[in-house]
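Quick one before lunch.
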Amino acid sequence: MVTTEHLLPVYGARPLLVERGEGCYVFDAAGRQYLDFITGIGVNALGYGHPALVAAIREQAALCVHSSNLHRHPYQEALAARLAAWSGLDLVFLSNSGTEAMEAALKAARARANATGRRQQRIVALEGSFHGRSAGSLAVTGQGKYRDPFGPLTPDVVFVGVNDVASLRGAANEDTIAIVAETILGEGGIVPLTAEFLEAIRELATQRDALWIADETQCGLGRTGERFAYQRFGLLPDVVVTAKPLGGGLPLGATMFSAEAGAALGQGMHGTTFGGGPLACRVALAFLEETERLLPAIAEMGAYFLERLGGRGRGLMVGLELDGPGAPVVERAREEGLIINCTQGNVLRFLPPYVVGWTEIDFACDVVRASCRAD
Ligand SMILES: Cc1ncc(COP(=O)(O)O)c(C=O)c1O
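Model of the pyridoxal-5'-phosphate complex:
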């Protein structure tokens, strides 16, 4: 009998024991099927057992799983080129997670400011944001419940309200070296930034010689029906952070830089043992190829889902704010065969797989409606 007694108790109760997955569904040890509309928090974006990912994993696992960054391998440079083309930026650093991808971005902002002798260094970030659990990422995460137990963190981070252009203008003073923002807040409750706010970020970052760091860990890589969520606005950040679905379930993060921003991190200034290994990179190339084809379907299915469910979001990133707590609804939905999650206490979060169809969306909407009614 497996027990949890030796696991550090950082996670809450986890009622489901997942044994396997297939397409949009996972199965528990008793063989019961669940429609998965949270997909490992946005990671299993092509669903489970996607043939292109399975083939890439099988073939590469037999050849070489890890080579370290002492050597080149056939897939890292190809993936960097693909991500540069996807993002519109120039240079790519590959790591293992969203947190690490954010660390690379923050280190570049610091190194760049230090190189030009800027003594006062302010970072502007958003209230309610989430950027990861490492010390740097935590410092720019705008939620006390994650940050407070671990202070002191990086000083001089100023938080402004989401879509509050006046506060942003007030906070982004001449000391500002970076403005960090999720294009659509994920953990913060699925809150899209407005065009006006994003335009102000771009304008102020340029004016202050600061980096606009767009965190697209949750909303990027096809999730909204665009390659990256910022692309809808015709704006280009200086640095883009992403991870989650990139490695098809294997840990892989990426930080994309403009040539000028990336120039701050020279040889020996940053690195990783595991990041950008041959297995993860080969799978990522397969993931991007499949996702490219699916972009119109993601937009179409997302629009249908949003229309049927209500709520807010874009593409297949949707949140439904409830009047009361979401946890009981999540539990009832699971009992009815649908996996979702709740963030901020009362926002149901949906990150369905990109391969979702009408039938799954209809089923999910019916279950959610019934689960909310049961309150
Ligand atoms: C927007 C955003 N940034 C960063 C992270 C951290 O990513 P990871 O858990 O892979 O370190 C997350 C994770 O949920 C996220 O949603």
